[in-house]
Amino acid sequence: MLRPPLDPSLFDLDSNRLWVMHCSEGPVPKASLEAVHAFLPKESRPWSLRWAEDFLAIPESTKREAAKLLGTRPEDISLTATTSSGLQVVAQGFPWQEGDEVLAPLGEFPSNVWPWKSLASRGVSFREVPLWEGHQSGVGAWTSSPPPPDADAETRLLDSLTDRTKILALSWVRFQDGLKLDLPWLGSACRERGVHLVVDGIQGLGTHTPDLAGVSAFATGGHKGLLAPQGLGFLWTEATFRSMLAPVGTWLSVEDGTDFTRPSTDFHRHWLADGRRLEPGSPSLLGCVALNASLACLNGAEAGAIETHVRGLQDALLADLATDPTWGAEAARLRGLWEEDRLGPILSFHHQGHGPDFLNGQLQAGFNQGVYASVREGYLRVAFHGLHTPSDAARVAAWLGG
Ligand SMILES: Cc1ncc(COP(=O)(O)O)c(C=O)c1O
């Protein structure tokens, strides 16, 4: 058991360093570096850049891999630079009416806040909902209580919907406390009420597979669980929802956009119905080849194997810390969340009132041992992926338990 579904030899790992922070930035597989090295010379020798094989086929291939990972259709994928830009496409394109509202959980990552707040001048308001008793954010983030195993986050969100709510915008897996929200439950309840569920998926995709049945849009950057470089991600949109959005794309978003036998200045054309209608112009082919190879690496693992593996490593680490005087109580809380399937890839250990100096001291002790974790808003985050081994989990336990 626990043989990594992503062979560690596919990555440029350093045995002196253990990187358990793909929740900040994922390690890029060697195949993606090789794809970049193979492609980059074409940019300096443009005569070797082919229209059909490169300009058209590379983004198409990237979308096929993205769709495969999501279990959807390539037509529903739009390539976007970041999670934020995917959410901006939705925010700017949605047919708002003055007085409409966007609802979100308290303490979302800013990528899922500013695109909605920017709509204030159009009369659209943004409202946050605490997800459990004692939940705080912003200046109160460090005095927040952590999510308990029986957090009724979904009920609190659904009870907060009003007739004015048009979009419920949330992170599938939350960046600081690591809580995973139940997309099928939220999605079907939103559908019944005519509300669109829009998801920031960056902290879950790559290790976990979302159920998109009731989701209208799902945005992600490429540089965390997807193990690609920064600067290219994608937006998935449900076809009917996409048709409601103003087409924020440009010349590649209309019929015959790439057919130069037709004058480009002939503007009597229809917008495309597929994901291209939301794309911003010439794609980053360099970004595409890298993301394509990273996605192919993830798609090479058996379906569900990475999630099962990550859960196994989490189980092992929590067991090792169960009787630890410092982390035992947190291990018990996280065990409860783990048993309820409320966790994505991040184990977020709460500071338990010890404060920032304590957590940063722990973090520094980890760095000194070559273990790279991260601290956000009162939590020490340990994120496992498909390339980690049981001895990696034991190394984290030795650091935290030591
Ligand atoms: C939940 C969440 N959303 C989005 C991002 C990043 O957003 P972007 O891809 O726009 O840089 C992060 C982390 O950086 C995150 O944790």
Task: Provide an overview of this structure.
This protein is an alpha/beta fold and 402 residues long. It has two domains: 56-299, Aspartate Aminotransferase, domain 2, CATH 3.40.640; 304-401, Alpha-Beta Complex (Aspartate Aminotransferase, domain 1), CATH 3.90.1150. Helices cover 36% and strands 13% of the residues. The protein has twelve helices and twelve strands. A seven-stranded mixed beta sheet has the order 2-8-7-6-5-3-4, with helices on both faces. β3 (101-105), α4 (114-117) and β4 (125-129) form a beta-alpha-beta unit. α1 (30-44) packs antiparallel against α8, α2 (51-70) packs parallel to α8 (285-299) and α9 (305-321) runs parallel beside α12 (390-401). The longest helix is centred in the first third of the chain and has 20 residues, at 51-70. It is globular. The two termini are 26 Å apart. The model has no long low-confidence stretch (mean pLDDT 97). Bound molecules: pyridoxal-5'-phosphate (PLP). The site of pyridoxal-5'-phosphate (PLP) has 12 residues, from α3.
Question: How would a crystallographer describe the biggest sheet?
Answer: 7 strands, mixed
Radius of gyration: 22 Å
User: What is the CATH level 1 assignment of the largest domain?
Assistant: Alpha Beta
Q: What ranges have pLDDT less than 50 throughout 5 or more consecutive residues?
A: none
Mean pLDDT: 97
What's the tally of helices?
Answer: 12
Helix content: 25-40%
Task: Give me the CATH superfamily of the largest domain.
Answer: Type I PLP-dependent aspartate aminotransferase-like (Major domain)
CATH fold field value of the largest domain: Aspartate Aminotransferase, domain 2
Chemical compounds bound to the protein? pyridoxal-5'-phosphate
Order of helix and strand elements from N to C terminus: EHHEHEHEHEHEEEHHHHEHEEEH
Tally of distinct domains: 2
User: How large is the share of residues in beta strands?
Assistant: 5-15%
CATH architecture of the largest domain: 3-Layer(aba) Sandwich
